[in-house]
Amino acid sequence: xxxxxxxxxxxxxxxxxxxxxxxxxxxxxxxxxxxxxxxxxxxxxxxxxxxxxxxxxxxxxxxxxxxxxxxxxxxxxxxxxxxxxxxxxxxxxxxxxxxxxxxxxxxxxxxxxxxxxxxxxxxxxxxxxxxxxxxxxxxxxxxxxxxxxxxxxxxxxxxxxxxxxxxxxxxxxxxxxxxxxxxxxxxxxxxxxxxxxxxxxxxxxxxxxxxxxxxxxxxx
Length: 220
What we know:
By secondary structure, this protein is of the alpha+beta class. It folds into two domains: 2-59, no CATH class; 91-215, 2-Layer Sandwich (Beta-Lactamase). The chain is 50% helix and 15% strand. It is built from seven helices and six strands. It has helices spanning 2-17, 20-24, 26-31, 45-90, 94-109, 138-145, 202-215; strands at 33-35, 42-44, 113-118, 151-153, 170-177, 181-189. The chain has a four-stranded antiparallel β-sheet, with helices on both faces. It has a two-stranded antiparallel ribbon with strand order 1-2. A hairpin with a 3-residue loop joins β5 and β6 (181-189). The protein is elongated.
């Protein structure tokens, strides 16, 4: 077996070092028969190479189509985030911002529910009775403040029963930050694969940033 391997390598080296061999023996390419990669029977070496190239081209076309779809989906999400940003800037008071989080976010981003909680003090004391300012456990505050990026995945133990109307299968928890963390926005889905560990968080981070900026007019 060792001698066969050496002979195979010798042949490979010879063909690599003498490419003119194929030009001088062009008819040999048609005579050599190999098993077809797409079924029974045999095909010539030249045909086999053509099929291999065709398969590579088909794979590239399929990958390109996938990238086009991803680009289109990302563009659609970016447009929705822009629309959210516009609406947040148009909001005339805190209640309108909360309404956008409650209604517009689930509708535009296909979410089952959202939860907005703020532990910074409102500039208008009358706003403090709002559900958004409901007490949050110190454990939850510590956990959220420690996050360097939005959390995506199965609901962690800090998720309270009053965050969502129905239990979430997966969540994205986005810290809201000004000079420091002032609260969080939680996005819920009934699809366990919607939010997952290691997913890209650029879009949810952007939502958190524009919402934090909008809230800066109403908290201290």
